[in-house]
Fold each of these.
Amino acid sequence: MTKRDYSLVGESTRIAIETGLASAEWYHTDVPRKAMKELMRRSDGPAIRDTLIWIVAILASAAGIVWFWGTWWVVPFLFVYGVLYGSSSDSRWHECSHGTAFRTRWMNDVVYQIASFMLMRNPVQWRWSHARHHTDTIIVGRDAEIAVMRPPDLLKAALAFTGILDFRYSLPILVRQAFGRLSDDEKSYIPEMEQGKAVVAARWHIAIYIATIALALYTRSWLPLVLIGLPRLYGTWHMVTTGLLQHIGLADNVVDHRLNTRTVYMNPISRFIYWNMNYHVEHHMFPMVPYHALPRLHELIKHDLPQPNPSMWHAYREVWPILLRQLKYEDYYLKRELPPTARPYRGEFHKVDMSAAAE
Amino acid sequence: MADWVEACAVGDVDEEDVIRFDHGGRTFAIYRSPDDEFFATDGYCTHEKAHLADGLVMDDIIECPKHNGRFNYKTGAAKGAPVCVNLKTYPVKIEAGKVMVDIG
């Protein structure tokens, strides 16, 4: 059984580089250039519409929290505000980091900075970590964004839904970075010329949190912190519910997104919060395609992809027994069936041990 | 020293688009701008080994298909993270309906 080393400067990193898994060539479904150009086409319209809805909903729910503060009527407003702040910011951060949400660059940058702050993510560090995630998706020792490592820590995975762990790690990381210290892992994917910017960004975030704490102390109220910072705790659950499904239980160390990434059909509200990232195989295969075009891309290439999970509930029911088996045998994973119309998986292409898969 | 080679016919590249051109073990990207001018750069992104010809041309910008890194394909200038190193550009001329690139 392979023992995985998830450090980005350790033994798995060395193996990934030596075996050609790092920065490898990945499988892509054939899409005619004309169709792909049409799908990649940028426009400001959909993202401006969705961002206006997003901002109005955030401000309205925040106003409700302020208005009903101290009564039980505040609870539904906290629920809505928390999800908008602590969960939907993740998909805005993500799409704007790719620069695909808006055609106009500065609009992507503004929303990216705001969403990064809401998530307690260093905007410089995470831009680079996400680039690495796309280069080396679920390549152990290379990918900085593997949510559930093997063998899975189920307690940690469960606590992720509460936001406690993210909060526990994100804030100290920002503090450390604000003091000018980047970890070896961070230095492995942030180019030297960008590392100073990461420190400056962390200092801005920390300054805003200090100001918020000062306001809370001055007003002797939790309200400022409930509006800024704490939603990262009480509103994260939707981000985790949708985001965990992206890769969990599937293969690692392969170079075919059909083997390590999952597409799940979701309800319209979750798709708005998640900005269509439920079409995750499609996104990884073609990250140039904006979120609003992913359903069209899905229709175009689904003949070459595993059948999507029909719901989040279905996906979690599929994942749970895989995680339990990984506790004893961490090489175990779910190999998803391809439809007869798909090009087969190429074992020799990604050197994956198919015998480890059960189905 | 100039080394002009024929890359493609003018009609091979759509307006505001890019195609790949391989020559002598090297790969290049040939662009046609919205105002019908032609340009050439190295074919690979300077960030990771991805063919820019699979990317998206918008006005003066080529966006890499892998990480959405952006370059001005007319000057080669990198336009921000995740690309930090400029793209090499090559002189282009049109002769008898052919796009000629000086790869020297």
Amino acid sequence: MRVRRLAAWTALPLAVTLGLVACGSGGDGGSGESDPNAAVRIEIAEPQHLVPTNTNETSGSQVLAALFSPLVDYDEAHKPYEVAAESITSEDNTTWTIKLKDGYTFHNGEAVTADSYIDAWNYGAYAPNGQNSSYFFEKIAGYDDLQGESPKAETLSGLKKVDDLTFTVALSQPYSEFKAMLGYTAFYPLPKAAFSAPGTLAEGYEQAPIGQGPFKMKGTWQHDAKVEVERYDAFPGEQPKVAGVEFRIYQQLTAAYADVLSDNLDVIKTIPTENLSTADTDLGDRFLQSPASSLHFLAFPTFQDEFSNPDVRKAISMAIDRDEITRSIFKDSQQPARSFVSPAVAGYRENTVGAAGEFDPAKAKTLYQAAGGPSKITLSYNGDGGHKDWIDATCNQLKANLGVDCVGSAEPKFADLLTKVKDKQPIGLFRLGWVMDYPSMENYLGPLYSSNGSSNYYGYRNPDFDRLLAEGAKAPSEEEAIKKYQEAEDLLAEDLPVVPLRFGQNNFGHSTKVKSVEMDLFDRINLVKIEAIK
Amino acid sequence: MFRFIVRRLLQMVLAFFGTTLIVYALMFAGQGDPIQALAGERPVTAAQRAYLTEKYHLDATGVGGFFYRYFDYISNLLRGDLGESLTGRSIGDILAAAWPVTIRLALIAIAVAVVFGVTAGVLAGIRRASIFDNATLLLTLLVLGIPTIVLAPLAQYFLGVRWQLFPPTAGADPDFFALLLPGIVLGSLSLATALRLTRTSVAENLRADYVRTARSKGLPNRRVVSVHVLRNSLIPVITFLGVEVGNLMSGAIITEGVFNIPGVGFNLFRGIRTEDGPLVVGIVSVLVVVYLVSNLVVDILYAVLDPRIRYE
């Protein structure tokens, strides 16, 4: 009796296996032609929010990229071009006129007008709404009046409607690259239906966001499970090549990776670190890499005497073998960095760090001793981010090449590290990373190194640098702005307030059931390009 | 019996509030900067910080702040409101979505442990020192020696990806078959312990006087084993399984993560990682209730199994 029951238990999985194998070979045996009626399944984490101005992590912005169409997108050279906008122009870099393309409608049938943008941006900038991406609007005139606990105004004075399809944006200061900012999630429009009263988001909007993009919601956001979208046939732009997308929510990437290997999931956006070494054999040409916008660096507390001499900083940079660490610790999942801006933006030049970026232990030691560098170096990092290995490796290189004592010091969490850094506590060098908000050189320079930069934690001050950034913002054309920014970047190479170490890279993969999988600059899968295989 | 149950239920109320206080205090003490934890390494704007601080009373610190926030939490709890997580979702909704799938998973695990563990344990107990007994001893030692964090990915890789016997992950709304592999992995540890317990206790009871009496009365062996021996041997196993029900539900953090099942363990893990105090306290409070109830059930089952045990 019992034996028979056991036999039944094993027979069940076997039968299902046969079924699976049959299905699998059927799918693989297809001609590889695109199937416009199929849906694809893409891995995401549980989004924190699905309101454009409140979404600043990649999972949420991936879903919103399906539901909304941006004003601009970026070409091969990372320059913005109009998508939902007809034209975005300015004479003086201060007042920008945005003309919208006709024919765009929200998924509920409502026409997209200038008001859709103005209402959404006002909502995002108003501080009491607590929107994560409110700082994207800080360049717009009147932003300051919307801040604080009881703001003076409820709408941005810089936003003015001209007609149904035209509005103007006045900035508080000229900014030549405003157009490049408009491609991000925060600048999507919202329909009237999103608001229950002017300035109040309707309850439940977030559970099934209505956008004007190539896909519309299919059902509601099923928390911790999935978000499903289907093709919106009235979309006037480039139609996607699949019928729908299921964004499947994973807490652990290893689970998603196992699903991609067995064709239960079509796209994994980040291959887990532990699988990187085998991804090549597991996935073959379905293992893909593309440049990401992140930059990882070691920062100097330049306000401390021992690190105030640029020669000390350069010597430390020269004593680090970036290539070796990227290869042996990161298994080439990141790229060695020798510039202050990422290859993901227009104006990037290779090796702007110059001589200080070359690994030269002998020269480094001489320079270090001549400049009187400290005999003990501490590298601080956050213990919750998997940084121990490369910090230890860097320390060992500094010990061997500079003859100093070096220790890695872990703070439990990133917040703890940041608190100590902000308080200017003597924690030695510290690691930081930067991900761009919009593809512009300015975004890699202004917040990080200008005297009043929001993330300038190293006490770096250079009036010339600030002046060049201001000139870049006022420059009449993008090309001229980039020139100014490049001059500013050259100043950084002389002063070296931080040691650029590595550029991030997207390591992603897909199943045998999809093709044309591409990743954009904001780490999102391009949903218009992806195709399902018959 | 009735008085016993009422007394136990009253004790449960006290135990419940005691544990929520302790868990709340621990989360409060361990809380660094939940707003930054939520944002990861992205900068947090002053406006966003002010908004969240006010909404979740994060500025109430120290002993006074602790009691303020704890009583705020408890008074909401008594009104049936578990509060909101830091991303603005209702914790009641999160739990309502997470519990059914975790309960299904735990039931499969318990079923696996009972069906295979107790059956094999009885067999091994009857045929002591046989090949079967030695083989199960070796196997259970092996299973007990491998932690779930190793066992779960291995099972997923071989049975799910390599040989494709099972779906590699279960997802949010899994059918029975998709939950089977995670259930077996989760239950394997309990299975091994239940097997060892049953085997020892069967082997011991087989030598008891009443078994000799039963045999000498001429009862068939089948009846002796299934009625006399098994019933008495189950008491330690039931005790173990009663505690294990709670363990399986809270201890599924690894299994639920590996097989992508958005259950209780999955949410607990997220709550701890993002320092989401109310979420963790909410989940732990429910887990405490599960432990208390399963212990009560075990105590009542004792009386059923062994008529000598009575409660006044």
